[in-house]
């Protein structure tokens, strides 16, 4: 697994996991044969996270046509994820990583500095994982606006 001094990078096998989601337990290994877009976001129903989730929602049909599945993951509890999903009509699973083990394995839980203070927090990150379970693209410190188009371009490249 990736560690802070050895972060997960493109070309590495994506760490497997099984966590609860809005559609029952989800295991990365069970999705072999499909491209997986795994995105980490700080908190359900906050402005940036809502924009990001809705952008991926709006790409659902195109992603599915390319053989890809989108998974959003946060440290939120399942009840909060269900509420978020229903409120915005999100059409993909939202995963709950309350113990942060998946965040840590992917380097999405790391020190962040805000107003001169450093604390651990969620680093908005996205990983495109190919059909064999290999990370093909990794984005860290994602800026939400336009990110969906960047992800879609990579997924299209893998499908071609």
Description:
The chain has 160 residues and is an alpha/beta fold. The chain has a single domain, classed as 3-Layer(aba) Sandwich (Glutaredoxin). It has five helices and nine strands; from the N terminus they run βββααβαβαββββα. The strands form three sheets. The chain has a five-stranded mixed β-sheet. Strands 1-2 form a two-stranded antiparallel sheet. It has a two-stranded antiparallel ribbon with strand order 6-7. A hairpin with a 2-residue loop joins strand 6 and strand 7. The longest helix is centred in the C-terminal third of the chain and has 13 residues. The protein is globular and about 45 Å long.
Quick rundown:
With 160 residues, the chain is an alpha/beta fold. 29% of the residues lie in helices and 27% in strands.
Question: How do the strands and helices of this protein lay out in sequence?
Answer:
Blueprint: E1 18-19, E2 26-27, E3 35-40, H1 47-58, H2 60-65, E4 68-74, H3 78-88, E5 94-96, H4 101-105, E6 109-114, E7 117-122, E8 125-129, E9 135-140, H5 147-159
Task: Give the tags.
alpha/beta, single chain, two-stranded antiparallel ribbon, globular, 160 residues, 5 helices, Glutaredoxin
Q: What characteristic shape results from the CA principal axes?
A: globular
**Fourth-tier CATH superfamily name:** Glutaredoxin
Helix content: 25-40%
Strand order within the widest beta sheet: 5-4-3-8-9
Low-confidence stretches: 1-5
């Amino acid at each position: 697994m990736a560690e802070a001094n050895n972060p997960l990078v493109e070309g590495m096998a994506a760490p497997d996991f099984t966590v609860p989601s809005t559609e029952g337990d989800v295991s990365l290994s069970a999705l072999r044969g499909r491209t997986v877009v795994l995105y980490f976001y700080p908190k359900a129903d906050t402005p940036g996270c809502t924009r990001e989730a809705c952008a991926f929602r709006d790409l659902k049909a195109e992603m599915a046509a390319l053989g890809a599945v989108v998974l959003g993951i946060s440290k939120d509890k399942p009840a909060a994820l269900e509420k978020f999903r229903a409120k915005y009509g999100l059409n993909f699973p939202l995963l709950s990583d309350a113990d942060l083990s998946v965040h840590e394995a992917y380097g999405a839980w790391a020190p962040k500095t805000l107003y001169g203070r450093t604390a651990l927090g969620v680093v908005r990150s996205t990983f495109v994982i190919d059909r064999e379970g290999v990370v093909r693209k990794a984005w860290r410190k994602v800026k939400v606006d336009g990110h969906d188009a960047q992800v879609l371009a990579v997924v299209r490249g893998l499908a071609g």
